[in-house]
Design a protein that fits this description.
The complex is a heterotrimer of chains A (about 120), B (about 375) and C (about 325). Chain A has about 120 residues and is of the alpha+beta class. Chain A has three helices and five strands, in the order H-E-H-E-E-H-E-E. The chains are: A alpha+beta (about 120), B alpha+beta (about 375), C mainly alpha (about 325). At the A-B interface, helix 1, helix 2 and helix 3 of A face helix 2, helix 5 and helix 6 of B.
């Protein structure tokens, strides 16, 4: 009754393992992945298109000191972000992009509100 | 003398948060009353305050097992409201991606159903390994493993990567072998046959009268499938045939889904042979999109769980009212009729064969 | 070293009442018992590690890898975490019975392993009726599960306790009939004699039908798949273990592997020749054969779908009992007459 299934189970003992031993091995991702945000501060023109298109109202424009004075730049709350990529698609100068870095851990919840300086690189 | 047992919202086998109040007479079920609403997130109300393209992030999270199906249904509704035609190559690409999504969803169903029947996660891990290969294919194209957001009005967000066809055909060969192995694995087990044959019978008349949909309807002998009765995209050119079984018990519903997986593999191979060249990229998202021309829009799509129906009243920039009829809600209401007269241990086999996703029920 | 028989027990009791060597004999016995019990617990812990790694390999994943080298200390970490949690009894439960049932089951399993002869010369169990005594005590296990289920005071526990009594009634009887046929073949009930009369050919080749019946009945008694109805973990949440709080749950987890070790040892002693083998120490052969049998039971757990209660009862009464009787008659006709 169970002989065929048992034979199959015993044969599967020699199959390779499929799970990865994170964090010793990591996954290889393609280039159009939508994970951590990245802001290229010199190129941002403060148009606030990303703030208007975000469905969750996650992005807010805050005062940021730069070399040319105080400008308004996007601040992102990573906890609320859907990682949908609409802000990346709407940005006219392509300065706000989503990269493929998926390791962001913190002990404190308040570290997840990323100011524009922290979104660099 | 009947007792009432509460199979509470937190339970290993109810696929989410579902509360069932079961009335038992000894070991026989006399009545089942489902209480739902633990996962209600107000998607229909949220949609009224956002513009058309800001909504796709919410639509995908209605069914988290097969997200592309609702993504596609909503974008098709927006296309019809704006009066935009889908490009030719994009129709074939959407067909291929939707059928891949269907295979992935049925593989997850197979794993969780055998888990409910008592098998100790072995088949669950194997089907997840196969589903992971499909998700990796879709990740190359769309950019994420689960919440794709790759449908735009008029086409898809970007064209397929150059080695997509070769990778897909390799994965399909592998999955076809594995599906046959899983069928033999389960059907040579006498205990599985006894736990699914003759259990949870839904007759043809009751299925039509109570409004069953999807594989539940086709397992009871009714030849109705949205892909062949109200065809869309490239299904009519690829020769799609619905799979029907005539007995109406849990084994028939299981068999319908296995046959559907094989039919999906065949359709994907056909589509790769007939796909035309050209442009497939749809409208990019901007802050000012074309305004809606039609007022009332209806769209029917076949998700892996059944027929999803969207009814939208469209304002110029945002929907005035968005109403979604999800298949799992209707299939859950059949449980009282199906489960009367069986034992308590059969209840979980029946729930497993109905393939419910609780986010789909509560919307 | 320590060999007992019924007259020897009588002599021992007489000498107990009349001499000063009581303390020495009792000390020797206690030291033996405690030492072997610690070894048995270590081996049951090792079986737990093997189960997790083998089931993980079948399912194409790593098992425990972080705690200790190759995850050897993972079970120890789990037990320590569970023992440190708070203990409480539900209000509607019978506190005395609830507190006593699980430790009693663990003590009973270890005591039964102590009774089995592990090598030709040691073992408390060189009694003339060893086989009957072991199985008489083995029948207490489902009873203790029943007590725990009834004393827990909620509906899931009661349903599970009823199922345990029903299963015990159906599966003990074929097991006892097979034991009778083994005693008939070996012409004694002494466990050492049974092992030594398998020196030429093992009993599994003489009575394959009896082995099948005994194996199925032993799986049902040990609560392993496909018969794990008593703690069907996707139906009744956890059956008789639903309301058991964390320190007692440790005992229940440890009990699972101890009972599996006990069952494997019994099957190996009765059917596979016990400690017979060439070259190395006899106890080594016994343990290796028990390990192979335990691995087979683990693979069965990874494969099988759980049976329903009515099919279980039909299997016990309508399939196993006639097969056991046929086995008895055939063995009598072929080997005794």
């Amino acid at each position: 009754m169970l002989i065929k299934s048992l034979a199959k189970t015993a044969k599967s003992l020699k199959d390779p393992r499929f799970t990865i031993d994170y964090p010793n091995e990591k996954e290889q991702l393609s280039d159009n992945e939508r994970y951590m945000l990245r802001l290229d501060m010199p190129t941002c023109i403060s148009c606030a298109a990303c703030e208007r298109v975000c469905p969750n109202k996650t992005i807010t424009m805050v005062d940021t000191p730069t070399e040319k004075g105080v400008k308004k730049m996007p601040q992102v709350g990573i906890e609320r972000c859907l990682f949908c990529g609409l802000c990346q698609e709407v940005c006219p100068t392509k300065c706000l992009t989503l990269t493929k870095g998926y390791d962001f851990e913190a002990y404190d919840k308040r570290e997840f509100v990323k100011r524009p300086e922290e979104l660099e690189g | 003398m009947t007792t009432k047992i509460n199979i509470g919202p937190i339970h290993p086998s109810t696929h989410g948060v579902l509360r069932l109040v079961v009335e038992l007479d000894g070991d026989t079920i006399v009545g089942v009353e489902p209480h739902i609403g633990f996962l209600h997130r107000g998607v229909e109300k949220l949609a009224e305050n956002r513009m058309y393209m800001q909504n796709i992030g919410y639509m995908e999270k209605i069914d988290y097992v097969a997200p592309m199906a609702y993504d596609d249904a909503y974008v098709a509704a927006v296309e019809e409201a704006m009066g935009v035609e889908v490009k030719e190559r994009a129709k074939y690409i959407r067909t291929i991606l939707l059928e891949l999504q269907r295979i992935a969803s049925h593989l997850l169903w197979l794993g969780t159903m055998s888990n409910d029947l008592g098998q100790f996660y072995t088949l669950f891990m194997w089907t997840f390994r196969d589903r992971d290969k499909i998700l990796r294919l879709l990740q190359e194209h769309a950019g994420a493993r689960m919440f794709y957001l790759n449908m735009r009005p008029g086409g898809v967000v970007r064209d397929l990567p150059p080695d997509f066809e070769e990778n897909t055909l390799q994965v399909l060969d592998y999955i076809e072998k594995r599906i046959t192995e899983y069928e033999h694995y389960l059907e040579s087990n006498q205990v599985f046959i006894e736990r699914t044959k003759g259990i949870g019978v839904l007759s043809r008349e009751m299925a039509i009268e109570l409004g069953a949909t999807g594989p539940v309807l086709r397992g009871s002998g009714v030849n109705y499938d949205t892909r062949s009765n109200k065809p869309y995209y490239a299904y009519s050119e690829l020769g799609f045939r619905p799979q029907v079984m005539f007995v109406g018990d849990s084994f028939a519903r299981y068999k319908v889904r296995m046959l559907e997986m094989k039919e999906s593999i065949r359709i994907i191979r056909e589509a790769f042979k007939k796909i035309p060249e050209g442009d497939a990229v749809g409208m990019p998202i901007r802050l000012i999109m074309p305004q809606a021309k039609n007022r009332i829009v209806t769209v029917s799509r076949e998700t892996p769980r059944g027929e999803a129906f969207i009814y939208m009243i469209a304002d110029k920039e945002r929907p005035y009212r968005l109403s979604i009829r999800t298949p799992s809600f209707i299939n859950l209401s059949l449980i009282d009729e199906i489960a009367k007269g069986s034992r308590l241990a059969d209840l979980f086999a029946i729930l497993g064969s109905l393939d419910l996703v609780m986010a789909d029920v509560d919307l | 070293m320590l060999t007992f028989s019924t007259s020897a027990i009588a002599n021992w009791l007489v000498s107990l009442l009349s001499s000063a060597s009581i303390v020495k004999q009792a000390e020797g016995l206690a030291a033996y018992a405690i030492g072997v019990a610690i070894l048995i617990m270590a081996f049951a812990y090792f079986l737990g590690w093997i189960e997790r790694k083998i089931i993980a390999k079948v399912q194409a994943r790593h098992g425990p890898t972080v705690v200790g080298k190759y995850g050897l200390l993972q079970n120890l970490a789990d037990f320590m975490k569970l023992l440190a949690k708070s203990n409480f009894f539900p209000k509607s439960s019978d506190k005395l019975l609830f507190a006593v049932a699980l430790p009693a089951m663990l003590a009973l399993s270890i005591f039964l392993i102590l009774l089995l002869p592990l090598t030709p010369s040691t073992g408390i169990g060189n009694m003339a009726n060893g086989l009957l005594i072991v199985f008489a005590l083995f029948a207490f296990m489902p009873l203790l599960i029943f007590i725990n289920g009834i004393a827990s005071g909620n509906k899931f526990g009661e349903i599970s306790a009823q199922r345990s009594v029903i299963m015990m009634m159906s599966y003990e009887i074929p097991m006892l009939i097979v034991i009778a046929s083994i005693g008939m073949l070996a012409r004694s009930y002494d466990l050492v004699n049974i092992v030594e009369s398998q020196a030429h050919i093992w009993y599994i080749f003489l009575m394959p039908l009896g082995f099948f019946v005994f194996f199925v009945a032993m799986l049902a008694e040990l609560e392993r798949s496909p018969f794990d109805l008593r703690e069907a973990d996707s139906e009744l949440i956890a059956g008789w273990l639903t309301d058991v709080s964390a320190p007692y749950y440790t005992l229940a987890l440890f009990l699972d592997y101890t009972k599996m070790f006990l069952g494997s040892l019994i099957v190996v002693i009765l059917f596979f020749g016990g400690w017979s083998g060439y070259g190395l120490l006899p106890v080594f052969w016994l343990v290796v054969k028990a390990l192979i049998f335990a691995i087979f039971v683990m693979l069965l757990r990874a494969t099988a779908v759980r049976m329903k209660l009515d099919r279980l009862l039909r299997l016990g009464w309508l399939a196993l009992m006639p097969l056991a009787l046929i086995n008895l008659i055939v063995a009598y006709l072929l080997f005794v007459m």
